[in-house]
Design brief:
heterodimer; A: about 425 residues; alpha+beta; Rossmann fold; Immunoglobulin-like; 26 strands; B: about 675 residues; 5-stranded mixed sheet; 24 strands; disordered N terminus
């Protein structure tokens, strides 16, 4: 029996070593589901940029009856790429619920949709807080922000440069050239606070069928149309939803771009940079934080006490690191805050840092006793959220810890002691006087 | 599988801007230089790179070095190298002209001949025959002719299936389209290697029949592209539609090249295959790139029919720039077509299919540029989307047999121009009478803004005119008027037209509910745009101060404005705990003064005692009671001292414990001294 377990463990080792782990949060194994193998070749630049960063891509047709996301309760992949906008039903055991379970267990998802996106893809997107235009013939049209092209005259090829302002999502290097987009627009569910517009349409854009006349105002209009959105779930799973699959294609990656009304013509569209940077974020090569080595103690001591007394002075420190894709680098920011919390924060203080990832501060324990928590709730745009809490009780003064020699009480003490001295003298005088 | 096909068709449409495709151009060449930039150790990859560069006539050499020739010679020299390696080694050496010894080739030829006889699988035959053909091309001294070509021909033919497909080997019942391509190429090789004129006619006609059957299996996209698709084949590698189609094209064209007489395949099918390969665009995979380019090169010079591709460098024609409408006709690889005329049969607006704007016009040919052009648009062509129908007419009747041009070709053309925007005005009207209260004209090309005010009993009227360059009414695709309230709530209205005038009248009484009864400042923004309008614009017209009635209780609440996502993430305001303030205390000096005052009575007591002249004469004289007396007062002093210590440092428990001991002791000695004193005094009294 022991031998059998050993053999099983031995076969599991390669899987365990390469899989997603808290220590190495980047994804490794990616399943790519396609409508047609031609996409593998026509979108090869995107796939190649993933492969060159060390990802292990597995291409499958979306209706392949053999595809599966998990086996024996273990997920086989760390991320899923759905480049199959028209698929009505996945092959194998995968369905919308399985894809959402995959995300719920902390794995990442990239969805490339298109107009004519199937109900299945729409359902997955809706569950993520992204609502595609219901009219399946609708495309995003922008008669003022289109990409100048001598062969595409219907203004559905859009050059967009309205990016989200976040270095962690799109990289620190500014994307100079506009990004080409051709496809379906979507809106974000206002009740979903986790979904973010990464690429928005311009104020003159609208979503409608370019071939038919408008009879009523389009449901999606202006900069509320999102072209590419990302979601970071509460379990830090990341999702990228794009309304255009051709955005990822080699043709768009290589194409030159000139936005209507702009005199500058860029030799290369911003698509490659945009998706390379965005995929780094989605696949946890950037913006993934970890907090370690939480320490707190009284000023002047080094050991962590099991309880604090009210009005103690304490020091708190934590180390925060960011995953760079290969190593954990110190995370430097000046907005990490600590809360000393019991029902509501009693103290909320910004931590100072030493630029090497260590954050520290000191403060006085409030004069309220009870069970407190040291709490760090760090949520920043694009970063994984850090949520640390450590419980610590706070007690009041002990009976002998109060102040003893209060000058204001000297008259009372004096009265008592002079009384006592008087009693002693009087007792002697009373007994022995003759 | 049906969904795959539909999906694939759809994707292809996306990759293609239109159903017309562009022939191979320079972008393909630069992509090839980028793609084949790594030195691959495999000869197959090296061959693919070399072949692509040869077909596309790229000056720069692919990164294959003398090492490659070295590998070729090594492979050819070894008597045990696999057939596949031998085959690709010969192919590479054919292009690189490696210095291969004739003796080596002879040895290989004899080995291959022996293999051909014994081979049972299609691949073995394919590689051996292919290699022999290559040796024949490279060294005419080597005897490669097959004496029993007929037999080999039959052994290949034996693997064919009734539906035109082939099997990989006799003991594998699965048939494959990909294998059909290989088999046809092998058959072509056998025919060219035959030592004597084999009894072709019968065999060849059977194979031609097989080809016809194979082409019955062809599949079609909506845009007229034809392709072969491989169903799943167990046991062998799955081939995608590109490599399958490519294999068939290679087989059929090489078979057609060696046989006399034509293979009858419809021209549309050949053109459709060309469209399929061109429709892929620029593949990102070396294998796909090779398959595409090599197949196109076979189509370029095949004996069945050579497809001609009509392409337009520009399909957006601007009336303001007055360019020429150019049409190019090339072969698939972009080389010049035979003398021909491009005829514009008809051009009609997409809106009105029956009324043609141009009927049957011949395009002129520009010798230098190598393109056909329509010198001037007729005067009556206005902005809009049109479909132009072209036809290629070949001059030579002979070349009609060689080339296939594909009948009528429909091309969508966008004619764009500047739309004149005029007589724009905005007015506030009184509702019941229609009297104009305020009236302002607008210059929509400028930047001036108006400010108006209105109440719910009034109307706001906005009107403007749009005129096409030919002076006709122009109806744009997008004519939106946007009212934005201070709270960022937006309302969109379509602007309709009555006759020539675009007009929108806002009857605020009917709109109050839609506006959520929100009074205040509304910004008015007008957006006009169309695919053929070169001056699409979106501009702020001004603002209107609306005075609307109070909302009734049941009215719908305005939606909450969108939350700025950035605001959710900033750091929170710091919180400092406010500590309880300690009670106010008197000054220390005051306390000391009062301490002094408190001690005064004690001092007065002592002074009083002295003044009274107290003495201790009653202290017992004898030793035992004196000791007890002394100890009693010592005990009292100790108890009092304990109280002082209790104040200074001791806690209650220590104090009580010590007090118990001291109390018991003091009580005992106190009892003795007091009883002694009582005895003495009673004695005194009684005495």
């Amino acid at each position: 029996m022991a031998k059998l377990i050993f053999v099983v463990l031995l076969t599991l080792i390669p899987i365990l070593c390469t899989s997603f782990s808290p220590e190495k949060p980047s994804d490794r194994r990616i399943l790519v589901l396609l409508d047609d193998f031609a996409v593998k070749s026509s979108h090869s630049l995107f796939f190649k940029s993933l492969q060159s960063r060390g990802f292990d891509l597995e291409f499958k047709l979306a209706d392949d009856p053999k595809i599966a996301l998990q086996r024996y309760g273990q997920y086989l992949y760390d991320a899923l790429v759905l480049f199959c906008p028209t698929i009505e039903r996945f092959g194998g055991s995968i369905d919308a619920a399985a894809v959402l379970d995959f995300v719920d267990s902390g794995h990442d998802l990239i969805v490339g949709a298109d107009n004519n996106a199937s109900d299945l893809i729409r359902e997955i997107a809706t569950e993520c807080g992204v609502d595609f235009d219901e009219d399946s013939a609708a495309m995003v049209v922008d008669h003022s922000g289109y990409a100048v092209s001598s062969t595409e005259g219907d203004h559905t090829l859009i050059a967009s440069d309205d990016f989200i302002k976040s270095d962690v999502i799109l990289g620190s290097k500014k994307i100079e050239a506009p990004v080409l987009f051709q496809g379906i627009g979507h809106s974000l569910n206002p009740s979903n606070s986790l979904v973010l517009k990464v690429l928005s349409a311009s104020p003159t854009a609208f979503s409608a069928n370019p071939k038919s006349k408008l009879t009523s105002p389009p449901s999606l209009i202006g900069s509320s149309i999102s072209l590419v959105s990302v979601i970071q779930a509460r379990n830090n799973a990341r999702i990228l939803i794009s309304g255009s699959l051709s955005m990822f294609s080699n043709r768009f990656f290589r194409s030159d771009v000139q936005k209507a009304g702009s005199p500058t013509k860029h030799d290369k569209s911003g698509n490659e940079q945009f998706f390379t940077e965005l995929s780094k974020w989605v696949l946890h090569e950037r913006g993934h934080l970890k907090a370690v080595n939480v320490q707190h103690h009284k000023v002047g001591e080094t050991n962590e006490p099991s309880i604090y007394r009210i009005n103690d002075d304490l020091e708190y420190s934590v180390e925060i690191y960011e995953w760079s894709g290969t190593t954990w680098e110190p995370y430097v920011a000046d907005d990490v805050q600590i809360q000393f919390y019991m029902m509501s924060p009693y103290v909320l203080k910004t931590l100072s840092n030493d630029s090497k990832g260590r954050y520290f501060t000191s403060f006085k324990v409030p004069d309220v006793y009870g069970v407190f928590q040291f709490k760090i709730e760090y949520e920043r745009l694009g970063y994984t959220s850090l949520s640390l809490s450590k419980q610590i009780p706070v007690r009041p003064f002990r009976h002998n810890e109060y102040e003893r020699f209060i000058p204001a009480a000297y008259p009372y003490y004096g009265a008592a002691f002079s009384m006592m001295a008087g009693f002693f003298v009087f007792s002697a005088v009373h007994l022995y006087n003759k | 599988m049906a969904t795959t096909v539909v999906g694939a068709a759809f994707l292809l449409l996306l990759l293609l801007p239109f159903s017309i495709s562009q022939p191979i151009s320079d972008s393909h060449r630069s992509a090839a230089s980028d793609l084949f930039n790594k030195i691959s150790p495999s000869l197959e990859d090296a061959y693919e790179a070399l072949r692509v560069f040869e077909i596309l006539a790229i000056e720069k050499k692919p990164p294959v070095t003398t090492d490659t020739c070295h590998t070729v010679l090594e492979n050819l020299g070894s008597s045990s190298s696999p057939l596949k390696d031998l085959f690709y080694a010969l192919k590479v050496s054919g292009i690189l002209k490696c210095d291969v010894d004739g003796a080596v080739l002879k040895k290989i030829a004899s080995r291959l001949k022996a293999t051909v006889h014994d081979a049972s699988t299609l691949l073995d035959i394919y590689y051996s025959v292919g290699s022999l053909v290559l040796i024949k091309d490279q060294d005419s001294n080597v005897d490669v002719l097959l004496t029993d070509a007929d037999e080999i021909f039959r052994s290949i033919k034996a693997l064919s299936q009734s539906d035109g497909r082939w099997r990989y080997s006799s003991n594998n019942p699965e048939s494959s389209t990909y294998a059909a391509g290989l088999a046809l190429e092998a058959l072509a090789g056998v025919i060219s290697l035959a030592s004597s004129e084999i009894d072709q006619s019968k065999q060849v006609s059977i194979v031609k029949n097989d080809i016809a059957k194979l082409f019955d299996r062809i599949e079609k996209y909506d845009d007229g592209a034809y392709y072969f698709d491989e169903k799943f084949v167990s046991g062998s590698e799955h081939q995608d539609s590109l490599s399958t189609t490519s294999s068939v094209v290679r087989g059929v064209t090489s078979f057609a090249a060696v046989t006399s007489g034509r293979i009858n395949l419809p021209g549309d099918t050949i053109l459709g295959l060309a469209k399929f390969f061109l429709g892929i665009g620029i593949p990102g995979d070396t294998k796909d790139f090779f398959n595409q380019v090599e197949s196109l090169s076979f189509l370029e010079s095949n004996r069945i029919s050579i497809p001609l591709i009509l392409s337009l460098p520009e399909t957006v024609y601007s009336l303001t720039k007055k360019g020429q409408l150019k049409v190019k006709v090339n072969t698939v690889l972009g080389s010049a077509a035979p003398p021909l005329t491009v005829k514009l049969i008809r051009a009609f607006s997409t809106g009105a299919k029956d009324s043609a704007i141009i009927d049957s016009k011949e395009l002129q040919y520009n010798q230098n540029g190598g393109f056909h052009f329509l010198d001037a648009f007729p005067k009556n062509v206005d902005v809009g989307t049109y479909v132009f129908v072209f036809e290629i007419v070949l001059h030579d009747s002979d070349s009609e047999k060689i080339y296939v041009a594909g009948g009528q070709i429909h091309v969508p053309i966008y004619v764009t121009g500047i739309i004149k925007v005029g007589s724009a005005e905005i007015a506030v009207l009184d509702s019941d009478l229609g009297n104009v209260e305020t009236h302002k004209t607008l210059d929509l090309a400028g930047n001036d803004v108006v400010s108006l005010s209105a109440n719910h009993l009034q109307k706001l009227r906005l009107s403007f005119e749009l005129e096409s360059p030919r002076g006709r009414l122009f109806k744009p695709h997008q004519a939106f008027l946007k009212l934005t309230h201070e709270t960022k709530i937006e309302h969109i209205f379509l602007v309709g037209n009555t006759g020539k005038k675009f007009e929108n009248v806002f009857d605020f009484l009917g709109l109050v509910e839609k506006l959520f009864y929100l009074s205040g400042r509304y910004e008015i923004e007008l957006t006009v745009g169309d695919a053929v309008m070169e001056n699409s614009f979106s501009r702020l017209l001004g603002h209107v101060e609306l005075d609307l009635p109070e909302a009734p209780e049941k009215a719908a609440r305005p939606p909450s404005p969108p939350v700025d996502p950035y605001s959710r993430y900033g750091p929170k305001a710091e919180i400092n705990h406010i500590f309880r303030v300690p009670e106010k205390r008197p000054h220390q000096k005051l306390s000391l003064v009062f301490l002094g005052l408190i001690l005064l009575p004690f001092i007065g007591f002592l002074v009083g005692l002295l003044r009274l002249g107290v003495n201790l004469k009653n202290f017992p004289g004898s030793t035992v009671p004196a000791t007890f007396g002394f100890l009693f007062h010592l005990g009292l002093a100790a108890v009092l001292l304990l109280y002082v210590l209790f104040w200074l440092k001791l806690d209650l428990f220590t104090t009580l414990k010590t007090l118990g001991l001291l109390g018991a002791f003091t009580m005992f000695v106190g009892h003795r001294i007091l009883s002694h004193l009582a005895l003495t005094s009673s004695k005194l009294k009684s005495a």
